[in-house]
C-alpha cells in the first residue's frame, strides 16, 4: 500500500515564521517613526496655516468679520474653531457668533513653546513665551483668537490691529525638526509660516 506524503508547516516552523515577521515589522516601524513624527508636525502646520488663510479669504469675500479661535473652551486641545459674526440689526447689539467649521491638528502636536526657542521671534511678534501670542490683550491675558475684517486686516474686539504669532511643536522631539510658527500682521492680515533652523549653529526662525 502506497504511503501518503503529508505536506505543511510544523508548529516550530510556523512560530519561527511569525517571529521573523514580527521582528521585521518592529524594525520597519522604528525606522519609519521619525518620518511619521515629521508628517504630524507638517500636517499641524499646514492645517493651521490653511485655517487662517481660508478664514481671511472668507472675511474679504463675504464682507463680514470672522474669528479664528485656538484651543477654544469646550473643545479638545489642538482644535481651531472658525466663527462668523453676523452683523447687528439697526442699533442693536451684534448677534451671537455662529460656528462655521472646526479643524483639528494631530494629537501628538500642540500649540506650545519650549526651551531653546531664540529670543528673536518671527516677524518680531511676541516674546517666545506664550504659545498663542497676539499683541492686544483683554483683562491682562493674551488673546487666543484672531478676528479678520472685511478689508483683510486682523483686529481684536476693540478695533485695535492685532499682530501675533502661534507656535506649534511636538513634545520630546528635536526642536529643529518639530517646531513651527505662524505670524499674522494685523494691519494687512498677512500670514507667514516659519520653521526653526540652525544656520551657523545659531537657532533662527526661517520663513517657509
Binned, the helix content reads 25-40%
Unreliable residue stretches: none
Shape: elongated
What structural class results from the helix and strand content?
alpha+beta
Strand tally: 13
Write the layout of secondary structure elements.
Layout lengths: L10 H52 L2 E6 L8 E7 L12 E7 L5 E2 L20 E3 L2 E2 L2 E2 L2 E4 L5 E2 L8 E6 L5 H4 E7 L4 E8 L6 E4 L1
What does this structure look like?
- By secondary structure, the chain is α+β, with helices and mostly antiparallel strands.
- Helices cover 27% and strands 29% of the residues.
- The chain has helices spanning 11-62, 175-178; strands at 65-70, 79-85, 98-104, 110-111, 132-134, 137-138, 141-142, 145-148, 154-155, 164-169, 179-185, 190-197, 204-207.
- The strands form three sheets. Strands 4, 5, 10, 11, 12 and 13 form a six-stranded antiparallel β-sheet that branches. The protein has a five-stranded antiparallel β-sheet with strand order 3-2-1-8-9, with helices on one face. A two-stranded antiparallel sheet has the order 6-7.
- Strand 11 (179-185) and strand 12 (190-197) form a beta hairpin.
- The radius of gyration is 25 Å and the shape is elongated.
- The N and C termini lie far apart (79 Å).
- The model has no long low-confidence stretch (mean pLDDT 85).
